[in-house]
Design brief:
This protein is an alpha+beta fold. The chain is 25% helix and 28% strand. It has ten helices and 20 strands. Strand 12 and strand 13 form a beta hairpin. Helix 2 runs parallel beside helix 3 and helix 3 packs antiparallel against helix 4. The longest helix is centred in the middle third of the chain and has 12 residues. The protein is globular, with a radius of gyration of 21 Å. 41% of the residues are buried.
Length: 400
């Protein structure tokens, strides 16, 4: 029996899925376009998979020709935004029993189709494809590429000048991004929603035929125009009357998504829920780490369970502790030679600094972050205090 993983994100979600498949007794096969892309990754899928297959994972004809030769395939998963459609097509081609439909994957992968499919529902947000004209619904508006990932090219625009600047940034994106994906550079404008931003993490339980809320992460971001994520806290308990699980499950049902894991970004404004994006895979931004250290099961393992039709494991948490991660950033352009974290909190578990020296031109997307600080689980008040101190620069030294 085989579980196939098509590529991985560089944070290692695919590697964890391969490990989980092997633990369950499956032969774990990793399919990738370029194995060298993973050589320096800490969680290297090449070292975990029972078999590595090299195919152009953007060429669906080659993928289908190969998968036709495979026997006893039970699941096909993708943890990279740019390959989820390919994995879905392969699963449909083999008529596997547990997988999200290609139509539903496309409805969330393409941001314009996402907004279009929510028209006429309680989750509708005014939007239009951008053609350089000011939005008919007025400013402020969020400008974003329809097919990029990781907040690349996203900007909140308050006037035509900011809109033109944002459009130029999208136009200047590399024709092929860092994962080898050909970006269309088509842009979407949607009405900007005020309010606190969160993400909901859900896994589909085939034995119950329903979505299970794993938890909610609170996001701390910069102010507009770029709204870069600075820190996450998980699990964050919200007012039960808001019925997050029920409302998001209704939206997922409307979009037809089942049998997978979803990372749902949303905002709450005056107790109303507004969907920002739905991603049919585990979260980035180190949220997976927070989930594993509090819920007790990594999101990748939950996604494997969804795709195999297995029950979703319950949380093994024995307390109400929360976990946090803080990103090291600089809002000012700098040429950085070294970074040192000197904060003395016992909650700090690990610090990771990205390659230095490095020159940055401010803070406009997640790609401008310099590293991150992982916190151990602890009481909410203590974790929030350390998170805010680190964000204020207390105990973080950035040297030029």
């Amino acid at each position: 029996m085989k579980v196939i993983v098509v590529e991985s994100n560089l944070a290692g979600n695919g590697t964890i899925a391969l490990e989980r498949a092997k633990d369950l007794g499956y032969r774990a096969i990793f399919v990738c376009k370029d194995p060298t892309e993973y050589e320096s990754v800490e969680l290297n899928p090449l070292l975990v998979a029972d078999e590595v297959v090299i195919i152009d994972t953007y060429d669906i004809t080659k993928l289908l020709a190969w998968v036709t030769s495979q026997v006893d395939v039970k699941s096909i998963l993708a943890f990279d935004d740019f390959r989820v459609i390919q994995a879905g097509i392969m699963a449909e081609y083999l008529e596997l029993p547990y997988h999200p439909s290609v139509k539903s994957l496309l409805s969330v992968r393409d941001k314009s189709l996402f907004r279009q499919n929510l028209c006429g529902t309680p989750y509708e947000v005014p939007y239009e494809i951008c053609d350089q004209a000011s939005p008919s619904f007025g400013y402020p508006a969020v400008l974003k590429p329809v097919d990029e990932s990781g907040s690349v090219g996203v900007k909140v625009c308050s006037n035509p000048e900011e809109l033109n600047d944002g459009l130029q940034r999208i136009s200047d994106l590399n024709e092929v991004n860092g994962r080898g994906f050909s970006v269309t550079r088509s842009a979407l404008l949607e009405k900007y929603i005020s309010g606190q931003e969160y993400s909901a993490e859900l896994a589909f339980d085939a034995t119950k035929e329903q979505w299970i809320l794993i938890g909610v992460a609170k996001k701390i971001t910069t102010s507009p125009p770029y709204c870069v994520e600075l820190a996450h806290i998980f699990p964050y308990v919200l007012n039960e009357s808001i019925e997050i699980e029920k409302k998001i499950s209704i939206a997922l049902a409307h979009l037809g998504i089942t049998h997978t894991y979803v990372h749902v970004e949303f905002k709450l404004y005056q107790e109303e829920l507004y969907l920002i994006e739905i991603n049919p895979r585990p979260p980035g931004g180190m949220i997976s780490y927070l989930i594993e250290h509090t819920y007790g099961v990594p999101p990748s393992a939950l996604m494997v369970a969804s795709h195999l039709g297995l029950p979703i494991p319950k949380s093994i948490a024995e307390s109400d502790d929360v976990c946090g991660v803080v990103f090291i950033t600089s809002i000012e352009p700098k040429s950085i030679k070294s970074i040192k974290v000197t904060h003395d909190s016992d909650l700090i578990e690990r610090t990771t600094i990205y390659a230095l020296p490095r020159s940055i031109n401010g803070l406009r997307s997640g790609e401008d972050r310099l590293g991150y600080i992982q916190l151990k689980p602890g009481p909410l008040e203590e974790v929030e205090l350390v998170v805010m101190e680190l964000l204020e620069g207390i105990g973080v030294e950035i040297h030029e």
